Amino acid sequence: MNFNIKKAFSVLSACTLSVSALAVFPAYADILNTKGKELHDGSFYYELKDNTYTITGLYASIVTEIPSQSNGTAITAIAEGALAGCGGLKNLIIPDSITYIGDYAFAGCTGIQELTLPKRLEYLGDSAFRGCTGITSVKVPDSVTEINDYTFGNCDHMTSVDLPDTITSIGNGAFYECTSLETFRVPKDLKIIGTDAMGEWFSIKEIDASASSAFTVENDMLMDKDKTHVYRGLSTISGDLYIPETVSKVVGGAFSGCLGVTDLFVPLSVAEIDTNAFAFCSSLKSVDFSEGLAVIGDSAFCGDSSLVSVELPTTLESIGTFAFGYCQGLEKVILNEGIKTIGEDAFLNCENLKSMTIPNSVTEIGENAVGMEVAVTNEESQFTAKKDFELNGVSGSAAQKYAKKNNISFKTTGGSLKQFAFIVIAIALVLAVIVFAVVLMSRSSKSADSGAKKAKKKADEKAEEESYEKIVE
Predict the structure, then answer these.
(1) Apex 89 CA angle, 179 and 56, nearest 5
(2) CA dist., res. 472 & res. 463, Å (int)
(3) Gyration radius (Cα) of the chain, Å
(4) pTM of the full predicted structure?
């Protein structure tokens, strides 16, 4: 039922600068309204479950409120995707009879400006209010214990969120791209913060974790108490950014939209930079990576238009999808032996990047990863090879196969893989011969020593015998 809308929203996790999936909502709503449901009251479609009504769709073109009952029967739930894309909803008061709001229930209802959630609400679904760009504030009742994935994602006019202390987890992307949010209070019982839960908080100036036993704020960064994970940095951070030396992971979206950061220093302790971690840091000019980093996640540095060059550590194993996509100022990338995979669109639309050398260790290069650019025409993406780009690598390598497939200029460096294999085998044979010769010499030396000792012993014995005979005479 919700396949198309879910697929459309998944696009938002990729790095694009001006693509919106919200246009799918009106069409999705139309599908819901033409399914021929029989049970309706002139405003909504219903389904009877356990002697209560569940709202399953919108019948009227405009409604101003959701009723608590219909024909004397209580309304207790709003089904998955039931009112998605309903532009007629404005000031939305959801009655206290509602205990369940399904996934995508109000997704894309851009007309909602004021939202009142029911006091008895128990379940608030994934993406329930995603893309409700008119909502400015929300207060979640204390009957709710979890904020699910993308529940309030892309609510870019939301300035305040009031979460109860009963909240134990905030899911992936729960408040992703709430770009107007200025303050946030960490609930007392909160234990889990998902990837990109706080991604692209361009306006966040204050985070209060004073009531929490699991999280702390230090140096303008929200971290766990052990300071091994960074979850969010304030948008006010500027200039040099030093990640603490206790941190092993920069969580998805942690510094996305920190427009004032110019130079980033990543310590030896960091093994993973997660999805969107430093996306849209438009002033970021340089990154000092340390050895120990193994993973750069999807869109980690996407849209960092001021980034000029990057030298990636020898410990790095994978670069994610769109990791450096749209880094238009990027001129130089140094990849070292050891890296294995380069994800799709990893360096897409890096306008100033003219060449790159791919190490032999790379076995997988994703679609449009290197040397490609994209243009959107008639809502369709057209990928083409950059005319002024050259890819360097060993003959027969994954790099050459990628270049051939995408009509990218390729320059062979350091011979071919077969030549390398031959050299390795030849060296191995030479070493084997040397070892064998050393063993033979050692054995010959031992034999010579043994013979010399026997001859000496025999001469000594003869001399002693002659001396003895002289004495006897």
Answers:
(1) 110
(2) 14
(3) 34
(4) 0.80
